[in-house]
Amino acid sequence: KAIFNFSDQKIIVVTGKNGVGKTTLVEAFKLISDIQVFQKSASLNSIRLNSSVSFKLHGYEPFSFSYNPKFEALDTKQVFKKKEPVFAELPIPYGDRFQRFSLVAKHDTEIRINIASSNYQDADELIEFLRKVYLTDKFSNLKVTNIKRQNFYFVLRESDFYIREDHLSSGEFFLIQLFRLITSGFELIVIDELDVSLDAAAQVHLFEAIKPVLDKYDSRLIVMSHSLAFMSTVDDGALYLLEDNSHKITLEQRSFGYVKSFLYGFEGYDRYILTEDAVMERFIEYIINDFHMTPYYQHKTIGVGGWNQLKLIIEKNDTEKIFTDSSNVIGIVDGDAYPEISQNYNGQTKILRSSVEDIEKYIFLNREALLTEIELPTYLESKNEKKASKAYWKYLTVDKKLTINHLYQLIIDSQNENTKRLANEIRAFLEKDSIEI
């Protein structure tokens, strides 16, 4: 059972280990437009007499596909009054974007005629989208022409010389196809192997570039990806992990830190320090350096993303040892989360308490004493302390250009005893023969 809750975001990213069923999930969505999809792309006997797929889409009555022996396929009685609301894009070689090469070539004569008669327009929206992805103006002369109710794109050169969309790079051609799908009226688009054609730089910028296009056309996007570069940019709550738990497939929201740890494991270290987030991760490394520790054990500090995600990854390591034995792992959480995780976690991994309740909030609440030389921000601050503290942290580190290490040192100096306590616990974990300070 897969439940996708878009809430405020328009993009959901699904990841998981190879073979867990990501492509099968896309094929299930593809059923809505092609009941033969499993015969075309799946292994022999992948569907049988008792196979079925059920859907509950917002705004539509529930419908299902069940095995039809006449067609030897999954079939449905559902009839959409307008075109299908969902478009699913399969991987190589079945995806529609790979079939479009021949379609563009087929209409080359009409494209030439339209260019000669100036029957085309500037592709302004697509130009802006590609500019945000690639951070270049190389597409500023991109044009669009309509042939038989379909848009075809090309880059116009001097003397009516042109470069068709299918002659651009595979990544550029894919992004044009993605843009075409979003602007074609589909309510939901599902894409497998999103990152197969895109370089790392394009992957980093794609998430932010595509959001305004989805907003404008009121479309939603589910993508399958293995790319850490891409997944690191997605909004909180937009990342899902498809996982095989004792032969039961589950799909759950997970933080980027959790996914990174689960998929790539960071094997090869003697000791692991798991923290709530990247801010805490850097704080721990700063303490190790500032207190002149000389770790005997090679270690890795990982920001997971929230205490609940931290608890889940620690529990998974307790049972599956995705890092190492539990005795070689510690978790460090903010002071405000420590009582709750201590009450709800009963495993073998040791949980430590940070020197403050919340790093960003501590700086925010104590700014008059700690940052006397920094004027208050002029923007309207949130009444929510958590949101206000994060905004203030960004104000200090970006607008005021204070280094993060400077803020960490303020915490150490003002919370010296608590930080010494934490440092001694970390030292005991990392050094073979540690001496308390």
Account of the 3D structure:
The protein is an alpha/beta fold and 437 residues long. It has two domains: 11-245, Rossmann fold (3-Layer(aba) Sandwich); 265-430, no CATH class. The protein is built from 17 helices and 17 strands. The chain has a six-stranded mixed beta sheet. A four-stranded antiparallel beta sheet has the order 6-7-8-9, sandwiched between helices. A four-stranded parallel beta sheet has the order 15-14-16-17, with helices on both faces. The longest helix is centred in the middle third of the chain and has 18 residues, at 200-217. The protein is globular, with a radius of gyration of 26 Å.
Under the CATH scheme, which class of the largest domain? Alpha Beta
What is the helical fraction, as a range of percent? Answer: 40-55%
- Counting DSSP E segments of at least 2 residues, the number of strands comes to 17
Q: How large is the radius of gyration?
A: 26 Å
Mean pLDDT: 87
* Number of domains as seen in the coordinates: 2
